[in-house]
């Protein structure tokens, strides 16, 4: 047997031999039922003579690789008793093994990178001149390669991959040093690493490239060999989580684990011994410091628990069970799922993960201080803080990290996000607080802070700082100085013992509210601090009783109704025999419908309502046998402070009070049950086309005056209602889930053209009724109708369930201009059996209002002098039951009463149709007999009970039957009114510029008006994304306006049909409306396009901000495919009206741009001498270009001579070869 014992095995085999036998390697690697798989490998090391026993022992657990096919093979070589076989058999066996050695190379061991993956080796005796070598291969850019320390005191060596570079961090007692070598080392190829010590000098070499550093101090021994830890490769044992004090660098336990292969780990493992290849320690032999490791954690029976691959079969190729983006990892025990999406957990990432969140009440906080345990700080070239917060408090500490005099302090201050940073001698401060946006609105907000060190010279570096809130609001800055690294030895989350004592403090309060997913990352390290605290990590100190959850909903969360049409729809309120309702409200507007619920089962007419009327709270209740109206407040409550309403009812009796002052009431009739089966409307009843049964006694409902203000603490029959949750599910743009008081709105006066401003709830209210203009700030020209005496506008209102409209109050405004002293302005008519009517007419140059209810009639006459002077005059009329009021222009109103005894249903006016300018029969196109002649002149600004009928008709175009319950007939003609001067003008100086406004209010209806001027044919003007597939976009395509939207069931595109291109450097007007649930209109200058869709979706569910002038560059690639433009708008925008708002593109922008400026800066114009040598000047917006095609010159101004060829007497030829490509047929 000796001749076999001395068999020499060479490792430097020829590469072409390996390639030659690749196919054989693959076949040998396959398991066969007929053959016993005998596989061996040749270890890559210097030429060595080994016995067969040594060969088997050295390579028994090694995994080898077929480099060409990237396949791994397990080599379970059995320990044969060679003495049992004859020499012929042994010779044959070794020949087979030798053939295999020529085909494969030793690949070391493979680490899966899972949460338990690591390999453990004997201690490193580094001495003063020790070395450590290894080779690794991976495709992952980050991961812990190797770690060892002195048992938890000071000294350590940490070797890890950071973004594809290898970083050595070490400490020999004089302070940590960092060496970084290499780049893109995660390329799937082998890389050789050497760590070499030479007294105070330490060198890191990767693939022959070296970097060195010198340690400070006088002693350079690496710890004490007796107490030093073992070497850990690829990760750390999990038992260290409970024994962080045993680590000199505690943060190493949180480093991402290495995923790849390691081989040829060579170092000295005891004094007086040369470096040698190291074998993996078995769990029973492992040493942790100077003690035996926790065997329960090591699980000695199965090495697979340490994430080491033995089986070469790829389980993930056969079946990938991972869900929700989980990454499949093949292990010996089958596929393992790594849940990259942190929202999911479980064996296959199939289960929603409990959110990492905690509630703080001002006395609780989380922290760590590595300095107290003697541990080294966390250091990095870049770090990031990411967290979500929700609070009602305007001030509070969110996060602090620092080391020595360096710090980063993140807080919420005055409702904005504040950040201060100190680094070396430089300091920086930011405060993100966008216009009209607050972050103390008890909604979730995300904050991300990113710092990155960039070395610009040997003595100077930049630290670039970026702060992003809600992925929209951004600020950035930098600090220059003498620093090379970011350090963190202490962290506070949610507060500290004394927050005002922290460096950079701008707030003195701890945080009160909820925090979620508080993550601190430094290079490869990533700490989820709340998760660590919740799971009892020894790193985190928890102060106070922290609750690791946040309430999903809170009835105390307020909402703000921002417009007359904004509202919420709740399920029916079951309150048959008795019930209790309470809520708190806050507003400064005197009128608004707060709550409405009705019964829809005839013949009963049950309803319950609460309204704010003339500054007082009124409660309406009808049990089906008669209505009762109770004033609940004893003093005005439109004072901008919180008030509370409570109502209790049992049968017919009840009491209602505001702020603790109660009034008793009793409903008429015999009924004792309140049967409500309609939805419960909160804040209003929705857009003008909404088909809702509004009781005549509910005056604010009739006048379409929705409640504008704050509401909270709604309780129905003892059950709290989270109205903020309904707001988040429904109209999130118009119903804000917060309540804040903004500054005075009417100073300076926002109303244009003589409009009169009054203070609303966080909004200016502009009265445009005495002007030629309309819109939220009286900036847009009013639509005007011309009547010649035979023309009219008729509106048929069918009302709820085609029962017509019955009202106890009316309010109208109408402007007229005429030279005739007599003419019918407005007349209402009812059924043929009803004499009810309201007539407004011009009589002998004065305005007369005639009201008739049943057998009662009253005339009012107003207007001084002659009103038929061909000037514009304004008529205002209102009725409240029997009280009448008529006013012309600014004169003193004329008042009157129909009767002293009219009450309840006897004061109800029935209306089936309204006739404007003339009276015509509904069926036959003939004029009806009337004592009052038709009107001759112009009418505009007509508003009847909140309906702007002239504007609606203009937006409908020919689709006059497109609105449910309302039909129009128009024979009068619209007058082309020249546009006024543009207002709130802004210039977009580049196609890369854009601004962001608050989300567009377009849940039920759309109203967008603007003007633009440009020379560019293409560009995105407006874009607002939404939930799922919903979005809205306005773009300029080849000089024409495209309006694209998707309400969830398919994209719709509308285009203007104008004969001219809009990129002509002239102002053009655009109006977009949704006058009906399925009707959409686009008006560009005088071009009108309407579309009636078949969509079943009634709501446009937008989300995020409204981008104007373009979107950020990364967003163009993901815009819906129906949007043609992939660049921004370059030119001027002005006169922007968005529903009830007229925002400034500069002052009201929540995302601002320095390339968007006030005013309209015209284009840089072509001049006569702009282009030399007869070049043609082509006008662009902020520049011009010279076309030199028809000249012999080139260059930006046709000044440079082109390359030319001169043909003389000798024959010359220029030959151009053109390749012809033939398309292949498949």
TrEMBL record:
PANTHER family: NEUREXIN 1, ISOFORM F, PIKACHURIN-LIKE PROTEIN. It comes from Polypedilum vanderplanki. The lineage of its organism: Eukaryota, Metazoa, Ecdysozoa, Arthropoda, Hexapoda. The keyword Transmembrane applies. The keyword Transmembrane applies. Residues 108-293, 355-550, 557-739, 784-967, 984-1160 form the Laminin G domain. This is Neurexin-1. It comes from the Eukaryota. Keywords: Disulfide bond, EGF-like domain, Membrane, Transmembrane, Transmembrane helix. SMART domains: EGF (SM00181), LamG (SM00282). Residues 312-350, 742-779, 1162-1199 form the EGF-like domain. It is found in: Membrane. GO terms for cellular component: membrane. InterPro entries: ConA-like_dom_sf, EGF, Laminin_G, Neurexin-related_CASP.
